[in-house]
Amino acid sequence: VQLQAFGGGLVQSGGSLRLTCAVHQSTPIDHYAVGWFRQAPGKEREAVAGIMVSDGRTYYGDSVKGRFTISRDRAKQTAFLQMNNLNPEDTAVYYCATGFLAAWKNYSPKNNNQFFWGQGTLVTVSS
Q1: What is the C-alpha to C-alpha distance for residues 4 and 22, in angstroms, rounded to an integer?
Q2: Which is nearest to 53 in space by CA: 73, 68, 70?
Q3: How far apart are CA 24 and CA 84, in angstroms?
Q4: Which residues fall within 8 angstroms of residue 88, CB to CB, at 6 or more apart?
Q5: Which residues pair with 10 in a beta bridge?
Q6: pLDDT digits (tens, 9 = 90+) for 15-60
Q7: Could you say which of 35, 64, 71, 88 is the most buried, measured as most Cβ atoms within 10 Å of its Cβ?
Q8: How many CB atoms lie within 10 A of CB 3?
Q9: To the nearest 10°, the Cα dihedral for 53, 72, 33, 1?
Q10: DSSP string, 65-126
């Protein structure tokens, strides 16, 4: 499984960015979720949002609820994260990943091996 992430960058506080995560896998990944984690400098990695490829069920971390929206293109095995009303606390490296949706809900850095990971993309929010 290969994952490719796009869309990071620099934005001012209150602005928006859209991340894309494309999963390259020869067999369908309907039983999995696709989404993002993030890691800020000096902090542990945290779960941001995940979406089931098959039925669109979602998970959101508490810090992003109401501001971030995750969606997917099932046929293209691609997920999108629309991030609105960004603030400096959202500054982090965002990692694209695929795994079981339950693993997002119960995420701990000890569970990193439950996911396939893509490269990180840096999101910087200036105040």
Answers
A1: 5
A2: 73
A3: 27
A4: 13, 125, 126, 127
A5: 124
A6: 999 999 999 988 778 889 999 999 999 999 999 999 999 999 999 9
A7: 35
A8: 21
A9: 90
A10: TTTEEEEEETTTTEEEEEE-S--GGG-EEEEEEEE-HHHHHT--GGGGGGSEEEEEEEEEEE
